[in-house]
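Thought: the user wants the 3D structure for the chain below. I'll pass the sequence to the structure tool as-is, report back what it returns, then summarize two notable features.
Action: structure_tool
Action Input:
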Amino acid sequence: MADHIKIRPASGTWVVRAAGAVLGESSNALELIEGDFPPVTYFPRSGIAMTFLEPSETSSHCPHKGEASYFTIVAKSGPIADAAWSYEAPKTEVAAIKDHIAFYTAKVTVEEV
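Observation:
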C-alpha cells in the first residue's frame, strides 16, 4: 500500500443519509486515510440500499487506488449527481475497499451513530 494511505475498520456504526432518507448503515465500514486529506468512510455495499444509487458516466483515476466509478443518488427531491464513488477493481494495495462505496460529505450526511 502506498505509504500515505491507511485503511482500517471504522469504529462504531456509521450511517449515510440523503434527501431525508437513510441510504445505509453499517458497523463494518472502513476508514481510509490518505495523506493530509480528511478520513473517508467506505460502506460495504451490503449495507447500502443500492436501489437508490444509479451508475453515472463519471469516472476518475487515482494513481494509488485505481479507477473510480460514480453514482447518482435517486431521491424524491431530485437526483444528487455523482454523490458516491466506488473502486470496482482497486489496486492490490487497497483491495480492502473493493465492494465498498464512499460518499461526498458535501452532498450527503455521513456520521457515526
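Final Answer: Structure generated. The chain has no helices and ten strands. The CA atoms of residues 35 and 91 lie 17 Å apart.
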